[in-house]
Amino acid sequence: MEFLVRSIFLSAFLTVAGVGASVGGKTAPDGKTEIACDLPSFLQTKNVGGSDGAGLCVFTSIGHAARYQNVAVLEDFRDWMRKYPGGGWPEKVDAMISKIAKERGVPKPEYIQVQGGRETLEIIRTALDTGRMVSVTYSKSPTGRYGGARIAHMVNIVHLDQKYAAVLDNNYITPADKSFEWMSIDQFLQTYMGGRAGWAVILLDAGPPPFPYTKGA
Amino acid sequence: MKIFAIAAIVIVAAQVDAQILRSRRSPPTNCRNGVCGVPLAELPSATPANDDGVRPNPSPADRRDDSTDLSPSGNGPEIVHQEKGEDETAVKNFGVDWNKIEPHKISLNGRNITCEHAIERIQSQVPNDSGKLRLVVIGSKDEREPVRRAWDDAPQELRDRVSPWFVSGDHWSLRDTITGELRFVIDGNPTIHLLGPDGESVGRMNRFTSTDDVEAIRRAVKKYDAAKDADLRLPDPHKKEDKATPATGGDNRFGLYLILALGIVIVWSIAERKGSST
Fold first, then answer.
1. Is the pTM of this model over 0.80?
2. Distances (CA, A) of A51 to A44, A56, A78, A137, B68
3. Which of A49, A58, A114, A136 is the most buried (most CB within 10 A)?
């Protein structure tokens, strides 16, 4: 009995003491860290269905990154995709990016796609560090969204440092103070990889410039 | 023993409370496809146009039609694709075909990269702009286009050092996303800012007359001392709050956890002593 009580006590403590995932605004649970890619809420769009009703989370996420990085041809990627069946995978993204660029008579934007495990985290980090918003797979909410169930989904990762990751979920486009799901790096890897392999799409155009200031002013 | 019992009751009660909170987020059984379980209060049906203080811009986002919204709060269409997960429970699919994602595959613009150094190569394909100057061209499309054309014809050496950004005067990136305050001068035709990597102003032009102006930019870039470039990945040196915060400052909850841990150790050792004495 005593062992049981101690076990409960310890497990509860470890649960409380761990870096808990949480839903919040642009600042991490530590109250200091701010998201790296701050896409205004009026430019965030919800996931919708394609012509067959299947979801367009992949193209919604890429559209977010396009708006953040000023890649005009892909800014309305989600809406353009609504006349096609939903669902997304790497080869389909290749085909659709080529198709939309050709249809609009503009050069195909530069992008990379990464599929793999933990080793791909540094590529995602490099992209975020250099001002790019990344679209990533997402399999389970660490904060209990979706009833804690396993899902097949793509979201945007808007922050990744040594302690925190933050995602913008296109199924939860909400007021600014509840827009982002903050989590530990391990929790991010878990949801990104989904027990198999993760998939990330990175547009190579640069993100927005910093605000100007005058030295010494 | 009594202490443990009381503590256990408190913890179990807290966990039950947390479970109740979680279950409130779970899809009710009468929901179509089980995708409408999140309280509407948490998920407004449309993105607020101005809740972060930014002046709303007409954009593709504002023209959207969410009639077939797939979000958990929406009355979306049937979710067509369902797959079986490893735990044999149905996986809700919001648009990713996970079966077509390969464990190790990297591509650049659709072309597979199959060499042994794929990771290194792909990392090199993510341009590191953190040390580049920024050329910000603000104006109408007609005002921006001559600059864009001249920039495309500029020497590669210059373009390698500068990352351009062409936007209209009402673009969101020119304003503070919290206060809505305009942070760039935009009164030129067009306005051309040349900024250091951290935003330090190198120079500005209020019009663009010819490709000779690109030469002026080239001279300014050449003159710029790259050795003083800041690394954008480091904390913003111009933020007052960052300066005020000690570098060793940790998570706000750390102290609480420390007290909890010490309390547990003390209670545990008292219990051990009592146990050994009996």
1. no
2. 21, 10, 12, 22, 10
3. A58
